[in-house]
Amino acid sequence: MANDRNQLIISAIMFGLLVWGALLAIGAYKFDLDPRKGFIVFGFTIAFLLFWAVMLSVRRRREEKDKP
Fold it and tell me: What keywords would UniProt list here (predicted)?
């Protein structure tokens, strides 16, 4: 039960970061109308979220491996 709740909270935080990164990317684009800046900002946001997801997956596997 607690694990499902934690997963829901983490998913909500990740979705919030994705939306925030998209808004920052739009702002970076509108600053001087250079689409490269928006893609860079959004790309780093996606890279961070992917890195975080991989680290959570590694942690989950280790915890499952250590269970008797």
Answer: Membrane, Transmembrane, Transmembrane helix
* Model confidence, pTM: 0.81
Q: 23, 36 in Cβ contact below 8 A?
A: no
Task: Give the pair of three-digit tokens for residue 68.
Answer: 């008797």
Which amino acid, residue 42? F
Which pLDDT band holds residue 21 (cuts at 50, 70, 90)? very high
Given a cut of 60, is residue 28 above it in pLDDT?
yes
Structural element, H or E, at residue 66: helix 35-66
Report the C-alpha dihedral over residues 33, 36, 41, 42, rounded to 10 degrees. 100
